[in-house]
Design brief:
single chain, alpha/beta, Histidine-containing Protein, Chain: A, 2 domains, four-stranded mixed β-sheet, three-stranded mixed β-sheet, 4 helices
């Protein structure tokens, strides 16, 4: 005796639809994971390109790493402005969810030290200029004095080589002066 199983048409459609949906969901999940990795790779390439094309940044010192649309910036830049510029450029890329900016600033000097250095430079330039103005043998009004990081820069005109050497000696013998660049010109 033969048994015949009869499935209704609606039951058969339900089984086929369930199988198709299960296979589609599995395929979609695999494709989604694959697309996520491809999307991260695309974002990483786009971020690198944007940094490379910006002439204000050194792309070779900035690293990008992308995971689930989050871009992490590491490496070193010259200033806080460069640090913020890199972050803003990457944040503007379509598909970037957020930016983790871990860039460090090369030779970052604490603000207190910057202020102190500028104060010392201003002070020693003022002292040198005053000493040149007070000396009877030097035409101090014709000499410009600048200071940068303890180095005095003398510019202007003097009447002789001896006066040029005397101006340099006065600058060199001033407290806190580390070096003198004598760019004075003899006019006579």
């Amino acid at each position: 005796m033969q048994r015949h199983s009869h499935f209704s048409k609606s039951a058969l459609v339900s089984i086929i639809a369930g199988t198709v949906l299960t296979l589609s969901a599995t395929t979609y999940a695999a494709d989604d994971a694959k697309n996520g990795a491809m999307s991260d790779a695309w974002l990483d390439g786009k971020a690198e390109t944007i940094l490379l094309l910006n002439e204000n940044l050194n792309n070779f010192t900035i690293n990008t790493d992308v995971s689930d649309g989050v871009v992490q910036l590491t490496g070193e830049v010259e200033s806080n402005v460069d640090r913020r510029l890199a972050e803003e450029l990457i944040a503007s890329v379509d598909g970037v969810k957020s930016v983790q900016n871990k860039l460090t600033i090369a030779n970052e000097e604490p603000i207190g030290e910057k202020i102190n250095r500028k104060y010392v430079d201003t002070k020693i330039a003022t002292v040198v200029k005053t000493r040149l103005l007070m000396d009877r043998e030097v035409a101090g009004t014709d000499i410009d004095v600048a200071s940068k990081n303890g180095t005095i820069i003398l510019r202007g005109f003097v009447e002789s080589d001896a006066e040029k050497d005397l101006a340099e000696a006065i600058a060199r013998n001033t407290n806190d002066v580390e070096k003198v660049q004598n760019k004075l010109k003899v006019s006579g």
